[in-house]
Amino acid sequence: MTVIDSPAPDLGSRTASTPLVSWRCAQAGLWVATGDDGRPLGIVSERWRDGFVTTSVTGANLGRFDSVEAARRALEESVERATRRR
Predict the structure, then answer these.
(1) Is residue 84 helix, strand or coil?
(2) Could you report the per-residue pLDDT of 53-79, keeping only the tens digit for each?
(3) Residue 33 in contact with residue 72, Cβ under 8 Å?
(4) Closest by Cα among 15, 4, 20 to 70
(5) Which of 14, 19, 26, 31 qualifies as a cystine partner to 44, CB 3.0-4.6 A?
């Protein structure tokens, strides 16, 4: 299992309409995303020898990725798209 600590978010590129996504490693191989309001946004889970799977808070599978960074980015982009539709 890979354990990666989340770097500090880049607040400089944040706009009022872009939610801040915070990541925490809940356990080895599982990262949980929350919004700046504290609500859960989704998870990234490591599939041993098969990459990383991203799942939204609604249970939608956002795909399988080769790196945890790409998996996290997929969820962040999904949240950003959903925010723009509101």
Answers:
(1) helix
(2) 999 999 999 999 999 999 999 999 999
(3) yes
(4) 4
(5) 31
